[in-house]
Predict the 3D structure of the following.
Amino acid sequence: MAKLRAHNISVSLDGYLAGPDQALDAPLGVGGQALHEWVFATRYGRRMIGQDGGTEGVDDAFLARGDQNIGATVMGRNMFGPVRGPWPDEEWTGWWGEEPPYHHPVFVLTHHARPPLAMKGGTVFHFVTDGLDAALDRAFEAAGGADVRVGGGAAALQQCLFAGKLDELHIALVPVLLGRGERLFEHLDGGPEGYECVEFVSSPSVAHLRFERTGRRAQAPSQ
Amino acid sequence: MAKLRAHNISVSLDGYLAGPDQALDAPLGVGGQALHEWVFATRYGRRMIGQDGGTEGVDDAFLARGDQNIGATVMGRNMFGPVRGPWPDEEWTGWWGEEPPYHHPVFVLTHHARPPLAMKGGTVFHFVTDGLDAALDRAFEAAGGADVRVGGGAAALQQCLFAGKLDELHIALVPVLLGRGERLFEHLDGGPEGYECVEFVSSPSVAHLRFERTGRRAQAPSQ
């Protein structure tokens, strides 16, 4: 059965996956770029931005695994861009330039409708206004039997964890303290429940922790 | 100059150093015992509770370092025991039995006065009712030039971090998700500021992150 997976979710020791005040020149918020330095030190990460070189090894392998057997991606709107509120126009096409590194359908959770956006290299952004379940249904259908990835950010991951829908979660713990920003493990009402660490390995830069869902939530979350 | 240090502070991936609902039979709160399993797998940890055997290696070495050149300990009241409010009597003498593993003066932060308590093996518990600064002054004096350790728990560590008084912080990140409990990096108003990771190494059980204070807080914390 196709799975819902999240990979390479970089989190600071104090729990943040982005700094505060996301902006055009700070996609990961103020200070948040420290969370992704390990990515661009690897061969796989450098290839994503059209550069040569980089390390092979644990970090590189985990990055690559995040793309394997993924047929569609779901992401929150802030991961797609810094625009808030209604789309002023259709100029913003994501952080990733003309050819985003997805090469498959990407479903963006938003409250504001917008026509689909086809990019070079096969990525098509679809804007979903009727909630997480609808986005997941469409993503699994589009993936055609392959797995679906939750790209981020914090709110989208929390929704998936809270609902017990995430089958696999790979965290890359970065040894920095950000102090403020978007926390991953927040608003979970005692969750995540039923997740077990099945892989734990470190490089000199990052600790990789892979969790799998081994049970259901003991009780329905109170809302 | 003598330093203020915290060592072997075990924290779950979701940021908790204790579970909720601390009680006589749950010193680390519900589920919190998972945070200390790595300790009692080591030779040093087993010796602390009078047992033989255990692993040597990274975890064992970090545990031992936590005791080196420490002349006094400061701790919060909940780390001393589960009693809340005024002391009903003087029966409670800590979690550690007749001979606690400190063997030096221990200053317990509390709102409720109590006479000093001398235990077997050199540990003397002093109950300090006039705040963190007073406890630190007394601890540094008692340590006689050696370093002072902050034992825990969350509130005591937060006070030290918030005030920028901790010189060294060693976290043992445990690959579990607790879901609820006492968070370490909370109530810091954007801090900890000025701490840098100077050592990052993992065993198969735990990731060790050692931070040193490299600067002062950029601005006085707003209260």
